[in-house]
Amino acid sequence: MRIAQIAPLWELVPPRAYGGTELVAYLLTEGLIQRGHEVTLFAVGGSQTSGHLRAYASQPLREMEETLHNDKTHCTVMASELNVLGDVFLEAERYDVIHNHMGFQALPFVNFVDTPVVTTLHNALSPEPVRALFLKNAHQHYISISRYQQQLWPQLHYAATIYHGIDLSRFEPNFALSGEPYLAFLGRLSPEKGPLQAIQVAQALGLKLLLAGKIDRVDQVFYDSVLASQIDGNRIIYVGELEHAAKVAFLRNAAACLFPVQWPEPFGLVMIEAMACGTPVFALRNGSVPEVVDHGVSGYVADTVEALTLAVQDYARFDRRLVRQKAEERFSAQRMVFEHERLYQRLVSVNRWGGNLWHRSSRNHPASPPMPLHLASDRPASQYGRPTASPADL
Length: 394
Fold this sequence. Notes:
Rossmann fold; alpha/beta; 7-stranded parallel beta sheet; 2 domains
């Protein structure tokens, strides 16, 4: 198949450090190429791929933070993204399928092409104008990254639920800890990610806590006014934003990974990265957490910070080999690529046999959805090595 992947322009593909969406787009692109597909990646300049790269913007938008902050009209971002989308959809006939990772910005364009387009829901449908745009285009094909996500926005037409996957070969597990144990928190230092709650757990247990992640401009006040006074550089330590090798060392040597999210997290790559290192995940029951963490096996899911604290003190009872095994069974990049390949083939097949006649008419009648194309994310791992999907899978 000829496939177009549209990545956000905020980070490089793959990202140097933070950038979950960009990492997924990279792994998916490379995995599809390895399976014999022709893939074009639309991404920010400096991105890497073994396929065809269409580069836009001279640097990741995140690195232009000062320029964007002073651009009160947001023209810099809009012009950059429209440049990408204009080219993709002008050339839509060149591709068998287009995969949109950018978000709501692409939705209006989808209605003007006959090439099947699918959008992965990497982010929340907010603020309200964004939600309204999604609902106006509810008839389009969407991939949810957890089943919980579908409960949030049941109006959308879901073609599949596909859990994220990672390149497990890049995460070396540690099955025998040594030295002083510490807890790990990895993620943006923002209220919704729960760094304050992680600090509370560590302080209650008298354990060392290392926090790693970026501090966005919008979260600087939260960090300065709430977190900074708690970070003493001795027992509670902020180590900054980590690149991949340092992140793996950070996770694999931790006694436990804390994930006390305060919002309905749609997936949470941090959880599966920790599991890949053999490190159990202790999380609050929010969003997709119960789908990702096998309670009592790869980690513990609690309803309150107090219950989470009690669970963390027994971190040593978790079998780190079994934690890694769960990551291998459920969250490999190979599995993620295979499920996307099956979905693409299904979309192309339906489109080829006239299914897209509904798509064209739906611009005026969006209330009549097509037959669902749902694919589950619970197929046995042994089935992910097949080179192509068989007719039975379609």
